[in-house]
Amino acid sequence: MTSTKAEVDVGYSLSNDFFRLWLDDRMHYTSAVYERPEDSLEHAQENKARILYDWAELDAGKTVLDIGCGWGANLEYVAKRGIKEAHGITLSTAQFEECLARKIPNTKFWMIDYKDWEPRLDGEKYDGLQSIEMIDHLVSPAQSRQGLAIDIYREYFRKLSTWVKPGGVFAFQAILRNRVPRTRKDLQDLAFTADIIFPGGLNPRLEELVAAVNPYWEIEKLETRRVHYGKTTAEWLRRLEANEKTIRETWGEQVFTDYVRYLSTCVRAFANHWSSDVQMKLRHIAL
Ligand SMILES: C[S@@+](CC[C@H](N)C(=O)[O-])C[C@H]1O[C@@H](n2cnc3c(N)ncnc32)[C@H](O)[C@@H]1O
């Protein structure tokens, strides 16, 4: 079972103004790519969007779908670089409202579960697909324990392969789970993040994704971004703490305490290899 709409709203619909305070100015809620040590968060997020635009082989004559499009930050970049028609889907009410408010040229948004989606291009398929850290909402911890994860991810990759033109490309990014921490406190902090901040989901393992793209997609490029996500979450935490007074006054003590605990856990998770992140360029196998 994917995260329900109610579970997605816990993670993303608290308040757009809350997330605006500590994310980058476009509100990407996923790992940035720091190409130079001096890159700002804003610059590093644009690097990420540039890589995924290039990997999806987009240009002003192409069409694209962003699955799990957040507040529209990636598609804002896509529209700026050039696109014929872009579509974005999200399950979060607050994100959907923000996407519409941005009035991004050549871009349309829907609030819909990807399982209910069909391409809306007058019978055409997309030239490219993009999805940035949405796959962690597909498998529940219980389903993973039952050994169902690869089958569920494979069904996702199969479904998406029917939306793209033969030989089309999919620029994909996912947060990953790697090693298991050793101390009770670290385990409790990770469980808190999973249960309270992002209920209903589970980060995939890289080997599960590599198995699940078969037989629909060929992996043409793969880059891990663990260190980049460590820097990204450290900067989110710094900005969150810099806004402590406003957050405590507007959203309450518990929200501030919970988000400090969650983001500090993320920083330790990437430093200690409990978590990582991957970008892949996938090519549709047209056989
Ligand atoms: C971590 S956020 C990433 C947002 C955005 N891609 C970014 O880079 O900032 C995960 C996104 O996946 C979306 N999502 C989760 N489950 C979904 C589903 N079943 N169908 C469509 N979108 C979903 C959420 O609404 C959210 O926009």
Report on this model:
By secondary structure, the chain is α/β, with parallel strands linked by helices. The protein has a domain at 5-18 and 32-178 and 199-226 and 277-284: Rossmann fold, CATH 3.40.50.150. The protein has a seven-stranded mixed beta sheet with strand order 3-2-1-4-5-7-6. It has helices spanning 5-12, 16-22, 41-55, 73-81, 93-101, 141-145, 149-161, 184-197, 206-212, 226-242, 244-251, 253-271; strands at 63-67, 85-90, 107-111, 126-132, 164-177, 217-224, 275-284. The model has no long low-confidence stretch (mean pLDDT 96). The chain is 46% helix and 19% strand. The longest helix has 19 residues, at 253-271. It binds S-adenosylmethionine. Residues 2-3, 8, 12, 28-30, 68-70, 73-74, 89-92, 95, 113-114, 132-134, 137 line the site of S-adenosylmethionine.
